[in-house]
Amino acid sequence: MLNPRAMSHSTRSVSPWRASALSRALFLASGLTVVGAWGCGDAGEPYQPRVPPAGVKATLPSVPSVEKQPVKEGEAFTVWGASYYLRSRVHHDEVAGRDLKITGYITATNLAEAPKCAIHKTGKEDPADCQAPIPTFWLADTKDAAPKDSIKVLGWASNFAQLFDAVNDYRKRRVSKSKKEPEPLMDAFWGVKLPYPLPGPGAKVTVTGNYSTAFTRATSGTESDPIMGVLTYDEITYQEEPTALATLPGMRP
Q1: Among positive and negative, which fits the CA dihedral 24, 27, 32, 38?
Q2: CB-side neighbour CA atoms (13 Å) of 116
Q3: How confident is the model at residue 34, as a pLDDT?
Q4: Which of 27, 132, 203, 221 is the most buried (most CB within 10 A)?
Q5: According to the model, what pLDDT value does residue 43 have?
Q6: Could you tell me which residues come within 8 angstroms of residue 116 by beta carbon, excluding any fewer than 6 positions away?
Q7: Closest C-alpha to 227, from 209, 210, 212
């Protein structure tokens, strides 16, 4: 005889939540079966490494030969050597703000740019509206170097009035033909000896002075050059004199 309670339990309907869960389980199981079937299929052709082409060589440019420039000429720095050290992180402190000797050729000066209002004897002031640059010459390793490859040298004359007196005085000395070595004139403001002869293109010189990125001896304004640097003059020695005597506009050398 059948148990009524058992019959009641077997005929009980499955709840909707259980039916849904069962459906999801069957779906996932069927998906795994399909994936497994794909994974066990043909792996395709085995990897064949590509053989490089034979007989073909790459054409590369030759390594350029960079000429090594000297850092020093004797005890003095070359212009390239001093400026290279100034820009170098390794050597910067060896030259920046230090007293150095630098040997090179004078490639140019700004004497020809002196305005008429600044050309007069010492003791007379320039007019208030007179705009005159600081007397400057440029030093380089070769006579024909460009200004961008040259070091500015300032501090050898405070103004063009000092040079006016020097041009006249030095001319008289040459005419006298004295065998005695003449003493250069002194700059009344900066207390340095004015070069004798005055700087001119073509001269080979060794200049001693403080080397840095800026010149600050001037009473107004500042000259600076972070690439090549600026040499503040103390003294000069000539190895070769200028090709022509230096002078100011309107004056005989």
Answers
A1: negative
A2: 1
A3: 47
A4: 203
A5: 64
A6: 249, 250
A7: 212
What are 199-251's pLDDT values in tens digits? 999 999 999 999 999 997 876 667 899 999 999 999 999 999 999 999 999 99
Q: How far apart are CA 189 and CA 11, in angstroms?
A: 123
Which CATH number among 2.40.30, 1.10.287, 2.60.40, 2.40.50 corresponds to the domain 72-240? 2.40.50
Q: Which residues pair with 208 in a beta bridge?
A: 101, 235
- By C-alpha distance, which of 190, 193, 222, 204 is closest to 137? 204
Nearest partner of 149 among 209, 199, 215, 80, judged by Cα: 80
Dihedral class, residue 89 (left if φ above 0, else alpha if ψ from -120 to 50, else beta): alpha
pLDDT at 79 over 50: yes
Cα separations in angstroms, 176 against 21, 136, 166, 173, 182: 124, 29, 15, 5, 11
Q: In the block, which residue shows the tokens 């190895």?
A: 239
Rounded-to-integer distance, Cα 225 and Cα 134, Å: 15
Please determine, for residue 7, whether its predicted confidence score (pLDDT) is greater than 70: no
Which residue from 137, 138, 150 is spatially nearest to 80, judged by alpha carbons?
A: 150
List the one residue out of 48, 82, 80 whose CA is nearest residue 66. 80
pTM of the predicted model over 0.85: no
Nearest to 186 by CA among 163, 153, 207: 163
139 vs 78: CA distance, rounded Å: 10
